[in-house]
Amino acid sequence: MSQPEVVTRFAPSPTGFLHIGGGRTALFNWLYARGRGGRFLLRIEDTDRARSTPEATEAILKGLTWLGLDWDGEPVSQASRHARHAEVAREMLDKGAAYKCFSTQDEIEAFREAARAEGRSTLFQSPWRDADPSTYPDAPYVIRVKAPREGETVIEDTVQGRVTIRNDQLDDMIVLRSDGTPVYMLAVVVDDHDMGVTHVIRGDDHLNNAARQKLVYDAMGWAEPVWAHIPLIHGEDGKKLSKRHGALGVEEYQAMGYPAAAMRNYLARLGWSHGDDEVFSDAQMLDWFDITGIKKAPARLDFKKLDHISGQHIAAMEDDALVSEIDGYLAATGQSALTSPQRSGLLASMYCLKDRAKTLPDLLEKAHFVLAERPVEPDEKAAKQLNSVSRGILSELTPHLQNASWTRDELEAAAARVAEANGVGLGKVAQPARAALAGRAVSPSVFDMMLVLGRDETIARLNDAAA
């Protein structure tokens, strides 16, 4: 018998950017569904009309797209489905699993005050729960679900284990307000059921909600999904992630120059592991990822580890893919797009740029030599390498280069001859040559730069500096 199709969902509220924790939740859902040939759905939980904005929805979609997480079908707007949510509330009423409650706010508050005074539970117990419909007044009412009063509600959670809540801790939750609008707790369950969601993978801050949402599943006779409540991400100090820890939005990581593949790899490792593997490809992630590998303890954001993983991905990436990442990075940070010659130069020099670059800005700094145009303006450190003595050495180097065959061995030999003639080490030739060619004190090897730039451009830049 074939297994039912796996369907997961990511359901953000569009009240701001895509949080790094939300990005990881989306990734876990995407990996679980895609790795099993299932579907990954997107639902925008925009029922809070006062705080939800189209700009925030756009930012979330943009963040997911940058992360490379594609979803199936159109994103579902929760707000657009309120008629369906209300219909389910009334169905629960018809089944006797919910009831009309006419209690006013003042009556509820009076109940709670009396309970506090008597040392009883302040969970509201409505006098309308088992009232005869013939006694109903002609007044506004809410619809409440009938929560069990005795025994326990059990959530079998794949990550957290067996979670038990005493039923005397559960109130008769409102599912439909007196103005006919559904509450979030109802909307989530109806949407998950109607969308065919089989696995609810979300932050463990929703764990308590699961017990209340189970009331709706039970009332409607619907099968519960598989629950997986994943731990939140903490800062390096072990405290809940906040602005003081640095970047919180996914788009900030793009603007810092981390490639999307590195970010996927790093986020997957936050709270999930596969043996001792640190760096892995999308194909490996999709093959290895399982909910059972998610840890219970909160994961810690660690920028050193992110830098290490990012550097490994940059070194292993195809050159074309890396240039595409750079295009996205430049656009995200409002910088000028690459010109056609710059793009060609970058591709030609990738072999000597990728090693030891942790981020795209690192790589672009190393690539300055091929992105800059003559005359190359040296920065402060490079300018110190260009004194009268070193300029004289560069003047001597150019005739040797005019006649050299343009291979690495020949170029090194030419530089070595000039160094020997001046009674200095090779570094005393290479350092001013680096300043002349790159305008930077840090760059790829001088001889790699010469090979990429070619004879004419190399000699022209050396002559500029010597003059």
Automatic annotation (TrEMBL):
Intervals of motif 'HIGH' region: 12-22
InterPro entries, per the entry: aa-tRNA-synth_I_cd-bd (IPR045462), aa-tRNA-synth_I_codon-bd_sub2 (IPR020751), aa-tRNA-synth_I_CS (IPR001412), aa_tRNA-synth_I_cd-bd_sf (IPR008925), Glu-tRNA-ligase_bac/mito (IPR004527), Glu/Gln-tRNA-synth (IPR000924), Glu/Gln-tRNA-synth_Ib_cat-dom (IPR020058), GluQ/Sye (IPR049940)
Motif ('KMSKS' region): 240-244
Family matches, as CDD domains: GluRS_core (cd00808)
Primary localization: cytoplasm
Record-linked SUPFAM superfamilies: An anticodon-binding domain of class I aminoacyl-tRNA synthetases (SSF48163), Nucleotidylyl transferase (SSF52374)
Recorded GO CC terms: cytosol
Domain Aminoacyl-tRNA synthetase class I anticodon-binding residues, every copy: 345-465
Domain Glutamyl/glutaminyl-tRNA synthetase class Ib catalytic: 5-307
Chemical reaction(s) catalysed: tRNA(Glu) + L-glutamate + ATP = L-glutamyl-tRNA(Glu) + AMP + diphosphate
Pfam families: Anticodon_2 (PF19269), tRNA-synt_1c (PF00749)
Domain of life: Bacteria
Binding site for ATP: 243
EC number: 6.1.1.17
Keyword annotations of the record: Aminoacyl-tRNA synthetase, ATP-binding, Cytoplasm, Ligase, Nucleotide-binding, Protein biosynthesis
GO biological process, one term: glutamyl-tRNA aminoacylation
Subcellular location: Cytoplasm
GO molecular function, one term: glutamate-tRNA ligase activity
Function: Catalyzes the attachment of glutamate to tRNA(Glu) in a two-step reaction: glutamate is first activated by ATP to form Glu-AMP and then transferred to the acceptor end of tRNA(Glu).
Family, as annotated: Belongs to the class-I aminoacyl-tRNA synthetase family. Glutamate--tRNA ligase type 1 subfamily.
Subunit: Monomer.
PANTHER family: GLUTAMATE--TRNA LIGASE (PTHR43311), GLUTAMATE--TRNA LIGASE, MITOCHONDRIAL-RELATED (PTHR43311:SF2)
Name this polypeptide is given: Glutamate--tRNA ligase
Native species: Tranquillimonas alkanivorans
